[in-house]
Amino acid sequence: MWHEARKHERKLRGMMVDYKKRAERRREYYEKIKKDPAQFLQVHGRACKGDTNNMIDRFDVRAHLDHIPDYTPPLLTTISPEQESDERKCNYERYRGLVQNDFAGSEWAAVWHGFAGVPGDWAMQTTVRRE
């Protein structure tokens, strides 16, 4: 039993010496290759939409866009008669329920209750009148 404890102690001491030697070798290696951090700096970029004056990195979302259209303000764009007709039809449907409820004199709380609870034409299902 004493021999086994002595053998185990020698083994542990040998492992500790090995760890110390390995740490010294590692420290010597890193001291040899130690350089200025600016030497490790790498900058990668590419041109945005072919413009070499505008460089972007890999995290810039513009790299994933095929084409960035030029912005035209909506006041300068002309609307065709077909688009204007479609817009009027959309606005009619959009505000039809509001106008019908206003004409019928319905309470807004009842209108929203009917909208949230009952499917179908909610504008016509209100029966509560304003006093």
List the helices and strands and how they pair.
Elements: H1 2-32, H2 37-40, E1 46-48, E2 51-56, H3 81-104, H4 108-117
Antiparallel strand pairs: 1-2
Give a short summary of the structure.
This protein has helices at residues 2-32, 37-40, 81-104, 108-117; strands at 46-48, 51-56. It has 131 residues and is mostly helical.
Summary tags:
single chain; 131 residues; mainly alpha; 4 helices; 7% strand
Textual characterization of the structure:
There is one protein chain. By secondary structure, the protein is mostly helical. The chain is 53% helix and 7% strand. It is built from 4 helices and 2 strands, in the order H-H-E-E-H-H. A two-stranded antiparallel sheet has the order 1-2. A hairpin with a 2-residue loop joins strand 1 (46-48) and strand 2. The model has no long low-confidence stretch (mean pLDDT 78).
